[in-house]
Amino acid sequence: MTAESGGKRRVLRAIVVGLALALWFSPVPEGIVPAAWRLFALFLSAIVSVVIGAFPILTASVLALAAAVLTGVLAPAKAYSGFANGTILLIVVAFLVARAVVKCGLGERLGQAVVSLFGRSTLGLGYSVFLVDGVIAPAFPSNTARSGVLYPLVLSVAEAAGAGPGEGQHPRLGRFLMFSGIASLTVSSALWFTAMAANPLGAEIARGHGLNIGFGTWLAASSVPTLAAMALLPLLLYKVISPEVRTTPEAPRAARRALEAMGPLRAQEKIVAATFVGMVVLWGAAATLHIDSTAIAFLGLGVLLTTGVLTLGDIAKEGDVLATFIWFAVLFTLSAELNALGFMGYLGERLAGALGGASPLVAGLILVVAYVLLHYLFVSQTAHLLALFGVFLDVGSKLGVRLAPLAFLLLFATNFFSANTPQGSSANLLFAGSGYLSQGDLYRLGALTTAFNLGVYLVVGAPWLLLLSR
Amino acid sequence: MTAESGGKRRVLRAIVVGLALALWFSPVPEGIVPAAWRLFALFLSAIVSVVIGAFPILTASVLALAAAVLTGVLAPAKAYSGFANGTILLIVVAFLVARAVVKCGLGERLGQAVVSLFGRSTLGLGYSVFLVDGVIAPAFPSNTARSGVLYPLVLSVAEAAGAGPGEGQHPRLGRFLMFSGIASLTVSSALWFTAMAANPLGAEIARGHGLNIGFGTWLAASSVPTLAAMALLPLLLYKVISPEVRTTPEAPRAARRALEAMGPLRAQEKIVAATFVGMVVLWGAAATLHIDSTAIAFLGLGVLLTTGVLTLGDIAKEGDVLATFIWFAVLFTLSAELNALGFMGYLGERLAGALGGASPLVAGLILVVAYVLLHYLFVSQTAHLLALFGVFLDVGSKLGVRLAPLAFLLLFATNFFSANTPQGSSANLLFAGSGYLSQGDLYRLGALTTAFNLGVYLVVGAPWLLLLSR
User: Fold this and answer.
1) Which of A83, A306, A320 lies closest to B83 in CB terms?
2) Residue A91 shares a structural domain with residue A146
3) Number of domains composing chain B
4) Which residue of B has its CA nearest to A68?
5) Which of A1, A274, B189, B237 pairs as cysteine with B196 (C-beta 3.0–4.6 A)?
6) Residue B31 is part of which domain span?
7) Are residues A242 and A308 in the same domain?
8) Last residue of a domain, one of A289, A304, A323
9) Residue B446, pLDDT above cutoff 50
10) Which residues from A are below 8 Å from B84, CB to CB?
């Protein structure tokens, strides 16, 4: 780190600490209890510190938790309750389980198979990226983990098609394929309940507002607008980027060669495939059969460990999952307790007052658009969801907006606003760092993709959701 | 893996599954509820599978948890409650915090400083191993993590003294130093509440029996017998192993050279030292000031992350801690629920019946000795504690044994029985794998050390504990 960036970080940290102290010691607004106000001071400072880059999210969460407990704002048992939350444990276990798809090679095989079938043209390659991503997505609760499967595939396809970032290397072809990776993740994550870590978290928050969202209800709600976006997005990017090469007859051959080199399905791949199919079937049936989704994930993990597809050595490399577990659990708990202490309701009333007079339809529209634009301030989709989703639901509820459609639109937005900026999701980072896309490309194509998705989910999705929730 | 070991493992797994099914479908003994019996079938099978090597502890735990929830034996909220247990979270966070001591070099510096002061003779070197270990122990809740600091020190001291495992390399000198590492960990872990992961867990279980054990009460109870064992153990090993070399004038010089090469205390080492001193002071005062020990650990982690001593990259390597978190939380919960369902009490009554008629003193003696001998069957100190500690307390209670002394003796035994066998604790593995100690040495010296410790804790410890609990 340079002295300059160290100095800048010190200033940013001073700002955050100053903000926390200023809020903490400012008079408690009428209508809320002091504990709610102090917890808000800690929570907001933690979120702001992440947004402005003063602290990483783990550091900010751990410090906020310690401060909340040591100052007596939260009782220890409440403060740690997030760690035992079934939804959060589901994410943690599914992170570990997803590791097996990458490790056994099944993810790459699936990708090559799709390219061998649909990859004859540049546009077909673009669609194949979306198709592979969409098919594997329900087994990957981490869009970041999924980007780790998708990126090597996109890179090898780009290289096989002769695209490179330099002069005379068909840079627009490479740009099209690479940005298709980022754009695809926005919609594959929105399609499936289990395709992004924040989805089940959001469902958990929505449960607190009386909505019951599971694997099946999510898919029913997301299917129509998301499939529409998936069908149109590759074409839009193709028109806008206009790749130099439009036919790629060599791509299916390269994929077939790669598949031949892989040989027949190995035993480990069969085990992983069977385990995942079993898990997805059980997840789909969980609500009907009254079985616990988290226990299904634990069972899947147990099967993969028993069969030796995953080893203790594999788990030992997953310290990132522990870090995610900790900050997830902490921020989730702080947000939930803020809600339990009445703060979200208070904030909602204030915001509702500002939007007062708007019709429910206009209010809902403003809420969704504002929610998407605010993501320019966030580096984590989950942090954004944790900070704002509950409040926006509250406001919508107060203004008479139909809650189920609003909740789904905000939840889908939590997925598709990832393309706003290169840092809008860690799932973008591999593609953004590939060298095929400039910062200008990333912001321009990101804004375009987000605006297009917003349009599709409002124009196609909103009527569909209103129909479903009748 | 060879085909033979794969075949053997399949047989072992078939045995465990057979055991689980046999217990599950056998008639429920009179006096307990069916859920308790089925949970016992799952818990016992998980423990047996670890003891006989059919499944690693993580796999066994995850499968038992999934089975318990999916069969309806445990409700999801209860089954996952261990993950939010403050004591377990304390261990998880302290594992991460301990990483900083190794990383910044403070652990090695402390070790070299002790050798430079006390390392003039072979016996002095042995004592210095015990001293270093005993001093750093309260900051290391993982005796395994601590062995990772101690082992490089012991190895470099052995090499500096000219000891090697081969002919003409003073093999007995090396054997003495290496086994001192294993022996030292048995007592350093018993000395401090926070020196071994199972200690706070045991205190948590003892709390369920009405005993309140914290940092200060533990130290008061452990100090007299443990310091006696620490004072005598190096001498015993020295007499029994009889090293070829008895004076090592070069060791203090080598240590001083190493210290000079390190230069003055670096900024990171100062931060870590200050953080640890702060944490140990706060832990010591936690009960008096009514502050939460786990929040203190989170604060320490936050400080180390903020100052950059620990980075997100360091945390990313700690997947092992996540695995430990999962199996700890699961086995702890299963054991606690078994207790809550009345099973431990039932088992205690049966065992008490078998020991009926014995005087409280004789009964207490038999319980402690049996508890130690049973560790020959266990590969994990924590699993042993989780399986038997609560039951033995129950039995002792029914037979009129004074509970506080019995609890402390069993808790100290949970630490010192680690030397029984090389696999009796993962903290032994570095020393056992050093090449300086044969399997014969390990079992022979292990039995000697355990028998000696058992004697000291019974002869010196029991009267001291009876005095304290008057």
Assistant:
1) A83
2) yes
3) 2
4) B295
5) B189
6) 1-78
7) yes
8) A323
9) yes
10) 77, 80-84
What digits encode the pLDDT tens for the residues B40-55? Answer: 999 989 888 877 879 9
SS3 letters across B302-314: HHHHHCCCCCHHH
Residue of B nearest to A55 (CA): B306
B121 bridge partner residues = B247
User: What does the block give as tokens for B177?
Assistant: 């130093």
Residue A368 belongs to a domain? no
When CB atoms are compared, the residue of A89, A306, A325 closest to B80 is A89
From the list A109, A119, A115, the residue with the least C-alpha distance to A149 is: A109
Closest CA in chain B for residue A310: B59
Closest by CA to A383, choosing from A324, A431, A446, is: A324
Q: What is the DSSP string of B58-74?
A: HHHHHHHHHHHHHTTSS
Domain shared by B60 and B174, yes or no: no
All residues of chain A having their beta carbon less than 8 Å from the beta carbon of residue B321 are 319, 322
**Residue B17 in tokens:** 């599954």
DSSP 8-state secondary structure symbol assigned to residue B29: P
CA torsion, points A343, A348, A353, A356, in degrees to nearest 10? -170
Query: Residue A48 domain-assigned?
Result: yes
Q: What phi, psi does A121 have (nearest 5°)? A: -125, 165
A121 bridge partner residues: A247
Q: Is A54 on the interface with B (CB under 8 A)?
A: no
pTM above 0.90, yes or no: no
ipTM: 0.80
Q: For residue B50, give Cα distances in angstroms to B9, B61, B197, B375, B383.
A: 12, 9, 18, 13, 9
| Residues of chain B positioned with their CB less than 8 A from the CB of A285 | none
Using the 3D structure, point to which of B78, B102, B121 is the last residue of a domain.
B78
Report the share of chain B in percent with pLDDT over 90: 52
Which residues numbered 82-141 in B keep a CB inside 8 Å of some CB on A? 82-86, 89, 92
Asked whether the predicted pLDDT for residue B4 surpasses 90, the reply is no
- CA nearest to B320 within chain A: A316
Instruction: Let me know whether A143 and A33 are in one domain.
Output: no
B421 contacts B446 by C-beta, under 8 angstroms: yes
Nearest to A66 among B62, B80, B295 (CB): B295
Query: What pLDDT digit, counting tens, does each position of B308-327 carry?
Result: 999 989 999 988 889 989 98
Cβ atoms of residues A182 and A144 within 8 Å: no
Residues paired with B247 in a beta bridge: B121
State whether A306 and B79 contact (CB < 8 Å): no
**Both A100 and A39 in a single domain?**
no
| Alpha carbon distance A69, A333 (integer Å) | 12
pLDDT at A1: 41
Residue contact B66–A298, C-beta within 8 A: yes
| Contact between A84 and B82 using a beta-carbon 8 Å cutoff | yes
Please report how many Cα atoms fall inside a 13 Å half-sphere around the Cα of residue B410, on the Cβ side: 34
Residue A171 forms contact with B (CB below 8 Å): no
